[in-house]
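Q: Hi! First time doing this. I have a protein sequence and I read that you can turn it into a structure. Is that right? Here it is:
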Amino acid sequence: MTTVHFELRGFEYSVRFRYDPAIVELIKIDVPGYARSWDPATKTWNVEAVFARPLAATLRRLGYTVLGLDDPPPRQHTTDSAGWARAVFQRVGPNRAPLAYKLLSRLCHPDHGGDHQLQVELNQAFGELSERKKTA
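A: Yes, that's right. Below is the predicted 3D structure, encoded as structure tokens:
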């Protein structure tokens, strides 16, 4: 796969890569026209900084190597990794927990661009909540 280099220049990132029409199309899809420009002299795309990280995330998800932007921080796994989800369900209460689960699943599910581990933790906490309801 192609390596994509990001370099911060003021309020923009210069995006450089060996020509790949798929990457050009991704830039045009992910970055609005007003926030991107092509520099033929340097053969780079200039992308407003606010759009650089989402573009890099899309590229990574599709298997491209991205250099020049900080990699996302590694997730810290604890023995109670689903604690955040339990706290959400406790906070919203038992009547609104199913709605909270549905909404959070839309964000966390990997099929919708979310994180697999977060969805696993959400499912675990919701499953525990359902089990408690059965035994109560």
